[in-house]
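User: What would this chain look like folded?
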Amino acid sequence: MPREAGFNAVILAARRRGTVDPLAATLGSSHKCVVPIAGAPLIAHVARALAATPGLARLRVVVEPEMFDAITAILREIAAMIDCVPAADNLADSVFAATQGIDGPIVVTTADNVLLTPGAVEQMLATLAGGADVALAMATQGAVLAAHPEGQRRFYRFADDAYSNCNLYAFAGRDAVNAAESFRSGGQFAKKPLRLVAAVGPVNLALMLLGKLTLAGALGRMSRRFRLKVAPVILADGSHAIDVDNERTYRVAGLLLARRAAGGTMPMCRPAALRHRRVAITDLS
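Assistant: Here's the prediction, encoded as structure tokens.
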């Protein structure tokens, strides 16, 4: 993708309908996206990483209408081109609504993905430029545990390694966003494996459970299912898989943000080669 072509970004910041996030409630907020961490609201850290990525044309935030003014105020000095989009009833429809009228590459992430870096976003865009329709960011179990041993407890086990999702996705254009149908009921497959059955199909899931598929092989099968080229992006820095889900990960993310601040730089992410060590699959936890 030519740098001058630019890209659009979407941050999913809405809360689940009818619920208040436990972490937000504990810290006295109605929405997790505005909970402070390391001196700024969660969503501000995410927006800063996107704004620091060369080529950002516009940022869209999916959130409830009553939060529009607060989100706009928080992000006004971070990125000039901001739109707030009303959240839909489910994740997939929210992505569809936020990407209406967009041409060209689209990066989608979540407001609790506070350890996102410009380098990771650039890797996603480079994968699209290389011919992928959809890119999914992942990190190996070893990389995640090296970042912090308490950062993540659930991993997807494939024939080559175990991986964690990094809540970072990229689409080559609006047509490729149809792949978001996998996330209609939410994308936390490790917590609710039936969602994975719906996304990849029972045969593909069986092969995964039997340890017959590498991550690349599984996504190749998913590519054929959706008639789109779906490619993994393996991020070397495992902290990208640590988002703020609860009080434990809030503490871990705060520690890692403090370490970055002490270092004075935001780390750039380099590609990690897929390893081919066989790991037997016994579960998806």
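Residues 76 and 141 are 36 Å apart (CA to CA). If you want, I can go into more detail on any region.
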